[in-house]
Automatic annotation (TrEMBL):
Protein name: Chaperone protein HtpG
Superkingdom of source: Bacteria
Region (A): 1-336
InterPro entries listed in its UniProt record: HATPase_C_sf, HATPase_dom, HSP90_C, Hsp90_fam, Hsp90_N, Ribosomal_Su5_D2-typ_SF
The protein's role, per its UniProt record: Molecular chaperone. Has ATPase activity.
Family: Belongs to the heat shock protein 90 family.
Cellular localisation: Cytoplasm
UniProt subunit comment: Homodimer.
Domain Histidine kinase/HSP90-like ATPase: 27-182
Keyword set includes Nucleotide-binding: yes
Listed CDD domains: HATPase_Hsp90-like
Gene name of the encoded protein: htpG
One Pfam family per UniProt: HATPase_c_3
UniProt keyword Cytoplasm, yes or no: yes
Length: 560
């Protein structure tokens, strides 16, 4: 259709736009950062698609971003010659939010601007941030390989228009029609300093007109200049990169709004040569548990972008890690299929996982408070580790943290090492209990005897805990023992007198036990006298090799 049509934004987009304008107006400079970040992504996408179809370059393979401004029209324009968008892609990418967790996100908003600004950051600001600066945005785009261009325009309120457009060059132009009072952005020096501050790490050249002074005013000339360093940040030496540069680069690769918790930058030489720059975010994204999620590790070969979200490079339990890996050995035309069976990739993955675990061990050891923050965000994901990565099981186990009867709060701060350090004389096992809520674990009658004897028990109530315990059965030679399973044998923790007493009680109640057994019949396997309890009259116990009561409940709830 050539006719101009008006379409409505998805309700969530409308809401997001409102919030964005009201909560982030003090972060105006990020608008340019976000749009340049998108332009750079668009170039990466083109390179990736062109690996299979070189004609997409249309004889223009020098990818770049151009920023310009027009004082009279009061506009700032960001142009790229990346992949561009088809009409359908414009509607899908710019008119709707398809992210999982969107509903939860909007429910979590409080109306408090400072708090909400923070949340929006986690959700991702992206393209819509344009409306912080502009009261009208015109986007004209032509997808690589297509002859039809489309113009999208919106005032960032309820709707937008779409119409066919003429555009000879491939890619996307975004024109920001500045709001009243934003004229400071119509300034050469201002724009260049924002680009250097936030987008210096962008690997493509960001080009602006050179300017010269004329009658006390800076005016653009006809000559181009590259404003950013336009070199791969990760390939530079560590000492040449500032903290801020590392942080801005993180925001670009992760699409995150906040600074990362920490990072590791390494140049690996030897059999496999590669550079890795890996970040641990400070906040979990909304879609951490969405299997379809993207934005993991970007793969480069000798500075050339190969692909986003190369899932072969990081195991699932480290899916929160962001960054780039740049290999010197892989072929430039490497595909996802090749990656799946590549020994080189396996070696890079193994090395990178070690780096990340090392980084986490370092924080855990030296900055326990930061580690606690990390654990709150990503601990449940890390607990998937022992089941997924047998080679690093012990190391991952060392990084785990749990709640326990020691502090008796739901904060997960206790490591296996801490636990072992507090074990009673004669204690051989690490005791734990699983339940579907923390309160249920904490108040379980199974804990009575342990509390009485002052023996610490780990209180496990995350869904993933059962899965964890299925693959982790000991730590440093100490067996992990459920207090709710099997015949509780406290071994050397009981003295002779207690054992004797137990025996006596068993004899005394033999006939009662038999009667209870008879009346419960098939519903139970066995009835026995226990010394587990000090206050409660009875409790349910799972067999040593049976599913725990908690896991049984989980499976039932899942319809198994
Ligand atoms: P994100 O970058 O995190 O995906 P954005 O809101 O920044 O989110 O952008 C939304 C989507 O719009 C992008 O994923 C992309 O598909 C599309 N898009 C935005 N800018 C461009 C561009 N310059 N060229 C091509 N596609 C773009
Ligand atoms: Mg973006």
């Amino acid at each position: 259709t050539l006719q101009k049509e008006t379409l409505g934004f998805q309700a969530e987009v409308k809401q997001l736009l409102q919030l964005m304008i009201h909560s982030l107006y003090s972060n105006k400079e990020i608008v340019l950062r976000e749009l340049i970040s998108n332009a750079s992504d668009a170039a990466d996408k083109l390179r990736f698609e062109a690996l299979a179809n070189n004609s997409l370059y249309e004889n223009d393979s020098e990818l770049k971003i151009r920023v310009s401004f027009d004082k009279d029209a009061r506009t700032v324009t960001i142009s790229d010659n990346g992949i561009g968008m088809s009409r359908e892609e414009v509607i899908r990418n710019i008119g709707t939010i398809a992210k999982s967790g969107t509903k939860e996100f909007f429910q979590s908003l409080t109306g408090d601007q400072a708090k909400d600004a923070n949340l929006i950051g986690q959700f991702g600001v992206g393209f819509y941030s344009a409306f912080i600066l502009a009261n009208k945005v015109t986007l004209t785009t032509r997808r690589a390989g297509s002859s039809e261009a489309v113009r999208w325009e919106s005032a960032g309120e309820g709707d937008y228009t779409l119409e066919a457009a003429d555009k000879a060059s491939r890619g996307t132009d975004i024109v920001l029609h500045l709001r009243e009072g934003e004229d400071e952005f119509l300034n050469d020096w201002k724009l260049k300093s924002i680009i250097r501050k936030y987008s210096d790490h962008i690997t493509l050249p960001i080009i602006m007109k050179k300017s010269e002074w004329k009658d006390g005013e800076q005016v653009p000339t006809d000559e181009d200049e590259t404003v950013n360093k336009a070199s791969a940040l990760w390939a530079r030496s560590k000492s040449d990169i500032s903290e801020e540069e590392y942080q801005e680069f993180y925001k670009h690769v992760s699409h995150d709004f906040e600074n990362p918790l920490t990072w590791a930058h390494n140049r690996v030489e030897g059999k496999q040569e590669y550079i890795s720059l890996l970040y641990i975010p400070s906040k979990a994204p909304f879609d951490l548990y969405d299997r379809e999620r993207q934005h993991g590790i970007k793969l480069y070969v000798k500075r050339v972008f190969i692909m986003d979200d190369a899932e072969q490079l990081m195991p699932q339990y480290l899916r929160f890690v962001r960054g780039v890996i740049d290999s010197a050995d892989l072929p430039l035309n490497v595909s996802r299929e090749i990656l799946q069976h590549s020994k080189d990739i396996d070696a890079i993955k193994t090395g990178s996982v070690k780096r990340v675990l090392g980084l986490l061990e370092d924080i855990a050891e030296n900055k326990p408070e930061e580690y606690a923050k990390f654990w709150n965000e990503f601990g449940r994901v890390l607990k998937e580790g022992p089941g997924e990565d047998f080679a690093n099981k012990e190391r991952i186990a060392g990084l785990l943290r749990f709640a326990s009867t020691h502090a008796d709060t739901d904060e997960q701060l206790v490591s296996f090492k801490d636990y072992i350090g507090r074990m009673k004389e004669g204690q051989e096992a690490i005791y734990y209990i699983t339940a579907d809520t923390f309160a249920a674990a904490q108040h379980s009658p199974h804990l009575e005897i342990f509390r009485k004897k002052g023996i610490e028990v780990l209180l496990l109530s995350d869904r993933v805990d059962e899965w964890l315990l299925g693959s982790l059965t000991e730590f440093e030679g100490k067996k992990l023992q459920s207090v709710a399973k099997g015949d509780l044998d406290l071994g050397k923790l009981e003295d002779e007198a207690e054992k004797e007493q137990q025996k006596k009680t068993e004899d005394e109640y033999k006939s009662l036990v038999e009667r209870i057994q008879a009346s419960l019949g098939e519903s139970v396997k066995e009835v026995r006298v226990t010394h587990r309890l000090t206050d409660s009259p009875a409790c349910l116990v799972a067999g040593e090799h049976d599913l725990s009561g908690n896991l049984e409940r989980l499976l039932k709830a899942a319809g198994q």
